[in-house]
Request: fold
Amino acid sequence: MLGFLLRLLPFWVREPLLIVVGSVFGVRIMYLALRDGEWVPAAIGVAFLVFTAVRVHMVVRALRARRNPGPAAPAGGAVSDAAAQPQPQPQPQPQPQAPAPRRPAPAAPEKEPNAWGQALAAVAVFAALGAAVWLGPRLPPSDDGSTPRAASCPGGEGEELPSAYKKTSQAVTGDELCKALNRSDLAQLLGTPTETATVASGTSNTAPLTDGKVAQPEAEVRFDTYTVNVSATYNKLSIAQYVKLMEFGEETDVRTLSVLGRPAVLFSDHTMKIEINLGSGGSGGPVEQGPLARTLSVALDGKDRGGYFDITVWSTSGALPDDSALLTIAETVLPALPERTV
Reply:
């Protein structure tokens, strides 16, 4: 029934319609076959494209026939009797001889383009455009392996938070801290712009020795040279009280200042080095003193009513960036985190 209806259509409607349908179906089937690695659909797609090429060839021939019509045949199809009878030839009169004009040489016939070549070129262009439309959004970005991708923060959706977070007003989570810290320009802020983050993590823990009543989320981003750790402690200890406690501790190079209009303190302390042996014995080495770290503690609010953010930087080699790098990180990261309002 469909074939009968198609034959009823005029030639200049039916053939372009068949060309469009054959091209679209051929390219689509070829794409699905290449994606799934199936050869039978690929053969069907080739058949559609060949069918389309044949229709294009027919249209090209019809166009040429319309542009260059052949000489019309005689209407009667027979020669008249008068034309068939011999006619008396007039006697030629002597004429003065004149030099015969030189006829121009006939121009070389221009070679017409091959119809099959035109048809195949049209199908190839249409197939390439269709493939670009379908394959473009689905192809992965080119990655030659020379530029490693920066580490991303793990998703914290569905994570059950400790009850301390529900009792603390506007307490951030480890996932929020990680997203605020893991910036694209963090390596540049540290003075190592060519490095890429290798590890990014965030945890929503509670402070030790508080029976799970004090929220203490933290996040860490690690580079080849430096490691940056940001934590928030939601307790009642103010920066002023924190500075007094440092007088009894082992912190060195203590310096009080103001960051974003909040009280802050800079100090240095050694990290801890813990060695764990996962062998058959399962024993680990003793806790040792690790490399020196530089920490900037900033109050949660401008009135210093308790609680603080800690931004700590260290390296395995013991080298530390300038204090200006810590201050810049704080001024860049902390505005993305809520202040304490209660």
Remarks:
- The beta strands are 199-206, 215-222, 227-233, 252-259, 262-273, 288-299, 308-314.
